[in-house]
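User: Structure please.
Assistant: Input sequence and predicted structure:
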Amino acid sequence: MDMRLTVLRILIRCALPVLVSGQLMAQPADFSDYQQPLPGSELLIDMVAIQGGVFSMGSPESEKGRRADEGPQMDVRIAPFWIGKYEIPWDVYEYFIYESGDPTTEQARASADVDGITRPTPPYLDMTMGMGKEGKPAIAMTHYNAIQFCRWLYTRTGVFYRLPTEAEWEYACRAGSQTAYFFGDNADGLDDYAWYSGNSGGKTHPIGTKKPNEWGLYDMLGNVCEWTFDQYAADTYKKLKKDKPLENPVNPPTELYPHAVRGGSFQDEAGNLRSAARAHSDPSWKELDPQTPKSNWWFPFTPFVGLRIVRPAIPPSAEEIQAYYTIEPIPEY
């Protein structure tokens, strides 16, 4: 528990803007979009710079399809960060699983004792669920697996990446909008922006093939749900609600289930793709896992869950970064 509270402090510290003469510093001087190369490969991860700001998190009571866990709405101040332009695709994710480049010293030590904790275990099924991989989002990784992917990126690049908080995710998804969807209140326009039950044909699709939101982010709605760092709770907003803007809220995970996922997937109806809509992981996702104990790395049948990464504009210290990455997995039940 103490380690998880430490991580909460890390997230807050590396998210809070710096005060200069009483004014909020919006971002570092070199804050702009960039491409993150992966050493030993030709792979790139496109990162989009997101300016900090204040927004209303959650949905108003008048919003069609609103659920109780989306409120009460609260004003939230978000510090600047970078976020992936796309969901992480299979080619990048498989580079993590089947490391083919020159390993770092840290990775060499870890690979000497492949214990299923420090290094990813190979998939034990066709984790694409028959949908294929080319250009499509990686799927079926656990919350722990997603964080360890971020850790691997750090060992390869020296740059601190992590999962977005629920607040950061919704802020980036809304892209300045206050409507049910980032393009308006009417779901009729969803076909232009998202793969969902109405147009997906029951499968994932290559990333970036629909229109982006106003901040240039693709597939924030649909295709696959995306992990956030937060523990899911139905009353999160009620507990956090304040009169003043809440600074970079996060509900750090202390339980194996449920963790919050956002954005809806190719399987979901339009209402589940609203910007404020929340969903969460469940033990049933591992019911078909043939392993004993069950895997820390893979869900046997979640073709609808993937990830997108975040980099805070102001990074934490090396010690704090290690604290974030080295939390041991919570035992499966």
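Residues 143-157 form the longest helix (15 residues).
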